[in-house]
């Protein structure tokens, strides 16, 4: 009799046993998790049941509870007051525990949506801050992102119509499209086209979800929904290009003034870059066939761009006066040298003080300071002290 060994089956059997052990381990983990959940439910019900049992036992079995004297009534009221207080405290503790859990989940989700920016991207120092008009929300209708790509550093700053939690869906649609498009599109117009298509898809889906049987044409979304967008691209040589869809133009900040640049641009400490009429906001009207890129000149060492949403300039004080942004920037950049984080902190502090601690609209601020050491040859004589 000849015996053969099935050696080829041993690895297969070993892998099957390993998979079986892993499945058994996952099953046991799920069972343990369900057991813990049941135990938590029992413990949550245990304290109210105990308090209720104490109250019923006192009322039925304690002779003092059967008496009608003043002292007996006072003791009975004290017992039931203690029972009620214990129940209220127990419910309050459970609600606070659930609220903390909800806030942790919401904070994690909002942090992924509008993630914190790094302190530096490709030699550009960054400082950003934002506050939502809805109390308890860390993200509202304002959006920003800074991403380093092979085409240069690309920046988006946007403001969704409306504010607070209702605008988060539009923020997610625009930011998600931007984070993909900046790496794929070699030119800014291509990035803007993708943002426009993402906005149109979002509005169609929202129209279908909100009006499934209203007879609205899903290809014609709600016209009132739109988002203003400012796209910037800062090349490796410092040259800045922009596309603006209804958004406020940024401010150019310098540590100090100086002579005029070629082309006649002044050298003031704080300068508003009004670079022509912007394009229509995304979602309001279709973009034109041609998207001319605006050349903003070089961002030299010693210079920074201050980007913001209109909630900054629209913030009012108790007397109805608008926030003086230009004056606040002039005050914040008075010291030399000035770090972007310091400028942002000073402006943000003045804004909150002006609005009595809480603006009526969403607010976002973003500063990009050129911290690079390599300077293009035509601009070497124009460099001021770095921010």
TrEMBL record:
<dbReference type="Pfam" id="PF07228">
    <property type="entry name" value="SpoIIE"/>
</dbReference>
<keyword id="KW-1133">Transmembrane helix</keyword>
<dbReference type="InterPro" id="IPR036457">
    <property type="entry name" value="PPM-type-like_dom_sf"/>
</dbReference>
<dbReference type="InterPro" id="IPR052016">
    <property type="entry name" value="Bact_Sigma-Reg"/>
</dbReference>
<keyword id="KW-0472">Membrane</keyword>
<feature type="domain" description="PPM-type phosphatase">
    <location>
        <begin position="121"/>
        <end position="370"/>
    </location>
</feature>
<feature type="transmembrane region" description="Helical">
    <location>
        <begin position="71"/>
        <end position="91"/>
    </location>
</feature>
<feature type="region of interest" description="Disordered">
    <location>
        <begin position="1"/>
        <end position="30"/>
    </location>
</feature>
<keyword id="KW-0378">Hydrolase</keyword>
<keyword id="KW-0812">Transmembrane</keyword>
<dbReference type="InterPro" id="IPR001932">
    <property type="entry name" value="PPM-type_phosphatase-like_dom"/>
</dbReference>
<protein>
    <submittedName>
        <fullName>Serine/threonine-protein phosphatase</fullName>
    </submittedName>
</protein>
């Amino acid at each position: 009799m000849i015996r053969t060994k099935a050696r080829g089956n041993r690895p297969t059997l070993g892998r099957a046993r390993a998979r079986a052990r892993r499945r058994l381990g996952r099953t046991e983990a799920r069972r343990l998790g369900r057991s813990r959940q049941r135990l938590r439910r029992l413990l949550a019900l245990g304290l109210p049941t105990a308090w209720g049992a104490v109250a019923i036992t006192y009322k039925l079995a304690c002779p003092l509870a059967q008496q009608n004297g003043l002292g007996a009534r006072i003791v009975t009221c004290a017992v039931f007051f203690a029972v009620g207080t214990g129940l209220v405290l127990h419910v309050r503790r459970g609600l606070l525990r659930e609220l903390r859990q909800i806030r942790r989940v919401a904070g994690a989700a909002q942090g992924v949506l509008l993630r914190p920016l790094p302190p530096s991207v490709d030699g550009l120092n960054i400082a950003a801050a934002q506050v939502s008009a809805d109390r308890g929300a860390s993200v509202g209708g304002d959006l920003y992102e800074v991403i380093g790509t092979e085409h240069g550093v690309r920046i988006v700053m946007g403001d969704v119509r409306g504010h607070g939690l209702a605008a988060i869906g539009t923020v997610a649609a625009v930011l998600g499209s931007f984070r993909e498009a900046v790496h794929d599109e070699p030119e800014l117009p291509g990035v803007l086209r993708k943002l426009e298509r993402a906005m149109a898809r979002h509005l169609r889906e929202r129209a279908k979800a909100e009006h499934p049987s209203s007879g609205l044409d899903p290809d014609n979304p709600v016209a009132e929904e739109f988002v203003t967008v400012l796209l910037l691209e800062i090349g490796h040589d410092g040259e800045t290009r922009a596309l603006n869809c209804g958004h406020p133009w940024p401010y150019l900040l310098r540590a100090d003034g100086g002579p005029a640049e070629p082309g006649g641009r002044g050298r003031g400490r704080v300068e508003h870059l009004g670079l022509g009429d912007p394009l229509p906001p995304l979602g309001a009207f279709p973009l034109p066939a041609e998207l001319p890129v605006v050349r903003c000149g070089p961002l030299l060492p010693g210079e920074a761009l201050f980007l913001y949403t209109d909630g900054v300039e629209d913030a009012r004080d108790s007397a109805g006066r608008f926030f003086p942004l230009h004056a606040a920037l002039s005050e914040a950049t008075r010291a030399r040298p000035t770090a972007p984080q310091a400028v942002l902190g000073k402006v943000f502090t003045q804004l909150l003080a002006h609005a009595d601690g809480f603006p009526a609209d969403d607010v976002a601020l973003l500063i990009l300071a050129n911290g690079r050491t390599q300077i293009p040859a035509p601009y070497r004589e124009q460099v001021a002290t770095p921010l």
